[in-house]
């Protein structure tokens, strides 16, 4: 009897662990939707299922099962569900047009559905932010939308809530993006938060997105920067470094990975990437430090140690080389 109970407990725990790795995403498709607002982020999550342990379960739903869209395709989706999972995400897409009809019967149906459910993360692409605002989900939240709709969004909220000229904005568990390609940037950001930067970098490479864009840092992601070259041995070395950028990599070890001498390695690495291997490692460590600054309460001294810097002084010196503002500004 005791053995049976133990087996049941183990089975229940395994089931819970499996379900915890499944993230349902309800993508609400609106009438006259802009297809790229849907397809771009959805493809990012689909790629993530190939590389990460977390599985994103995509559910395409809408107030109307047959929807008109920007490409004139025949498109059918599932109706809005009556029940959702506790850890589900919501993603509301944009619509075509300068003037949007936010009080249509279809959108009224969406507002009623949103009022009945709570989501672990609330996400919008382009004019989807206006729908969230009408539904009351952006109350007291900083947010953004496509530049053509910023004034409309301000009218629904308050002007100081709407941040213009932003690719995407995160305020708590609410994420809003400027739309179109910015929805892809936001999806990559969400994958990075949920699964890790290595996975989001792989996705961006597979989607040939050589430029990764974030909320505060408009520069290239260090996980993709300096990789627009054809030297496969250098790509392999960069992959190894990315797996453990905190490690104290020696030139001897990196040269061995490339099956070449130290001198030859140093030359082809810089010729291929434009920087030295040491500078490349520093950039990855600074990226890790930025994530800890944004998502942890750790002090700068501990962050410097965890990210592989010699001491806080070296960390601050290197940080100042790439950032105009101090590390505290990324809190």
State the main characteristics.
Arc Repressor Mutant, subunit A; elongated; 7 strands; 331 residues; Rossmann fold; single chain; 13 helices
Quick recap:
The protein contains 13 helices and seven strands. It is an alpha/beta fold and 331 residues long.
Overview of the molecule:
- The radius of gyration is 23 Å and the shape is elongated.
- The protein is of the alpha/beta class and 331 residues long.
- It is built from 13 helices and seven strands.
- The protein has two domains: 2-206, Class I glutamine amidotransferase (GATase) domain (Rossmann fold); 232-330, Homeodomain-like (Arc Repressor Mutant, subunit A, Orthogonal Bundle).
List the helices and strands and how they pair.
Elements: H1 2-20, E1 22-28, H2 35-51, E2 55-62, E3 78-79, E4 89-92, H3 105-115, E5 121-125, H4 128-134, H5 150-156, E6 168-171, E7 174-177, H6 181-194, H7 197-206, H8 232-243, H9 251-257, H10 262-273, H11 277-295, H12 300-306, H13 312-322
Helix pairs in contact: 2-6, 2-7, 6-7, 9-10
Q: How helix-rich are the residues, as a percent range?
A: 40-55%
Number of contiguous helices: 13
Number of domains: 2
Low-confidence stretches: 1-19
**Overall radius of gyration:** 23 Å
The main sheet comes to: 7 strands, mixed
CATH superfamily of the largest domain: Class I glutamine amidotransferase (GATase) domain
Structural class: alpha/beta
**Beta-strand content bin:** 5-15%
Number of extended strands = 7
In CATH, the architecture of the largest domain is: 3-Layer(aba) Sandwich
Helix and strand succession?
Answer: HEHEEEHEHHEEHHHHHHHH
Mean pLDDT over the full residue set: 86
Q: Could you say what the CATH topology of the largest domain is called?
A: Rossmann fold
């Amino acid at each position: 009897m005791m053995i049976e109970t133990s087996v049941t407990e183990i089975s229940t725990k395994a089931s819970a662990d499996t379900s915890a790795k499944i993230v349902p995403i309800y993508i609400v498709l609106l009438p006259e939707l802009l297809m790229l607002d849907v397809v771009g982020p959805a493809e990012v999550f689909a790629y993530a299922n190939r590389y990460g342990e977390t599985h994103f379960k995509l559910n395409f739903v809408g107030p109307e099962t047959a929807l008109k869209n920007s490409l004139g395709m025949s498109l059918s989706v599932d109706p809005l569900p009556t029940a959702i999972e506790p850890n589900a995400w919501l993603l509301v897409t944009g619509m075509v047009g300068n003037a949007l009809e936010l009080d249509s019967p279809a959108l009224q149906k969406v507002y009623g559905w949103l009022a009945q459910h709570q989501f672990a993360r609330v996400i919008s692409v382009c004019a989807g932010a206006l729908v969230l605002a009408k539904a009351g989900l952006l109350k007291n939240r900083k947010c953004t939308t496509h530049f053509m709709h910023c004034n409309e969004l301000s009218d629904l909220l308050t002007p100081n809530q709407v941040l213009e000229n932003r690719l995407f904005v995160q305020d708590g568990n609410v994420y809003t993006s400027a739309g179109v390609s910015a929805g892809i940037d936001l999806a990559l950001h969400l994958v990075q938060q949920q699964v890790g930067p290595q996975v989001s970098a792989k996705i961006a490479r597979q989607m040939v997105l050589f430029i990764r864009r974030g909320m505060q840092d408009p520069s290239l992601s260090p996980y993709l920067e300096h990789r627009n070259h054809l030297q496969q041995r250098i790509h392999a070395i960069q992959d190894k470094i990315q797996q453990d950028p905190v490690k104290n990599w020696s030139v001897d070890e990196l040269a061995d990975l490339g099956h070449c001498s130290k001198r030859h390695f140093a030359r082809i690495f810089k010729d291929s990437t434009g920087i030295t291997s040491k500078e490349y490692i520093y950039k990855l460590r600074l990226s890790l430090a930025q994530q800890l600054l944004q998502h942890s309460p750790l002090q700068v001294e501990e962050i410097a140690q965890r990210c592989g810097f010699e001491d806080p002084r070296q960390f601050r010196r290197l940080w100042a080389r790439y950032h105009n503002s101090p590390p505290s500004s990324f809190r």
